[in-house]
Design a protein that fits this description.
Blueprint: H1 3-20, H2 43-54, H3 66-82, H4 90-106, H5 111-122, H6 143-148, H7 159-176, H8 181-189, H9 196-207
Helix pairs in contact: 1-9, 4-7, 5-9, 7-8, 8-9
Amino acid sequence: MQPAMAGACSRRQGLLFLLAGGGLLSIPGAVIAGNQIEEPLADAVRTALSAAVLDTAPPQMEFPDTESRLSYLRWLGRVSDRLKKQKPDWNVRREFLQTLWYESRRAGLEPALVLGLVQVESNFRKFAVSSAGARGYMQVMPFWTRQLADGDAGKLFHMQTNLRFGCVILRHYLDREKGDLFLALGRYNGSRGKAAYPDAVLAAKKRWEF
């Protein structure tokens, strides 16, 4: 291996060690927030995305059977234990997890994936703002409120609104990338094709899987 390539591999391995090994991602406030890039949307896509984010009904937990409900409650208990450091209050933690589970499932996403993304983007800080202006738990860029809603970027600090926008946007990117999660995550972060952000989210995702 050439020295330059070896150096690059070493630097990347060091970054992944910090991300996945409990270094960077375990430090409160250490996040890798980026920014989605504003792009023109086809009218049909804009209409569909707008309809997806403007349904303001609160999360209603519906289960087809008792086992499904018990599975959710087991998930809630286990994930809640792991989130105590970031959200010590049980009621706040329960509301956040219930909403995240609902919005993830509504968008066809794994809750563990969304939890990993929130960890990397904001470290579970409701009022986080990136240097690029992205806001809230899932670091949604304000231009999305102009494209899909009424333009009030302040609403991105509302928990359900932020999680809904973030999940709908990630679902949109997944569809656009034909299911390629690596590319979709890069697009979400504004770093499509680069490994650091997808690797970080997928490493964080493992913490929330069972």
